[in-house]
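Data availability excerpt. The first of two example chains:
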Amino acid sequence: MIRLIVVAANSVLYWLVLDKQGTIPWLANAVIGIAALYGLYVWFAEPYRRYPILLSSYFTSLSDSALIMVWLYATGSIASPFYLLLYISMVAIAFRYPARQTLFASLVYSGSYFALLC
């Protein structure tokens, strides 16, 4: 549910508030669609009940990091105003998962961010 709220809030900000100069609108809209479908699937189908690995931050870090990095790239790359998503996602992982999984997530996010910068 929280994932859907974040997707909805960022979509509204992108569509109504953000100046589209320097963005890739088709990619941003594609990420919004994919993230919304992913969020709806997780909320309604609850795949983590059938596949417990999906409860792990190892999976959620990879999927969320990929979506966030493509979103940042589509909304201005290193000039994107949505960098706060990285912080929010990392803090959410730190509160929810143990230290080893949080370390893994921080490495995934750092690597993804480095790839975005290159």
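And the second chain:
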Amino acid sequence: MPCRRERRSGASVVRHDAAMNRMEDLNVKACKEAITSKIGAISQNREASDSDRDDPKAMKPNPNSKQSRVIAMLQSSSGATIIAMMKATGWQKHSVRGFLAGVVRKRLKLKLESTKAGDDRIYRIVGKSDHNSNTADPKRKAA
């Protein structure tokens, strides 16, 4: 079955095509403007949340979260083993170790102490780590 355009006379087909092209151009332009405005809004929200994400103190931890439970276990005087953290969170061993290295040490910049007691290793947070301090020789002057 032939489409409508083919049934029309030559002049009306040209006018119809031109009108369709104008409508498509307007739709494309409207879509581009909408996308640009959405991207701008998203980037503004992301910039605002990035500043909160950079400062761990600005974030409000959920006291019932798995991460806060593990940190509470680590802050206790007796510390915690990987097995105990696995049972408290349901995580696997490699996830617990990744949390200790990535979140506790790097992101929160807490000093994590590890002691061996028999066959088990006990992890404990002993205080704030001073990663930002100048570790260069104090006798040397800065250039």
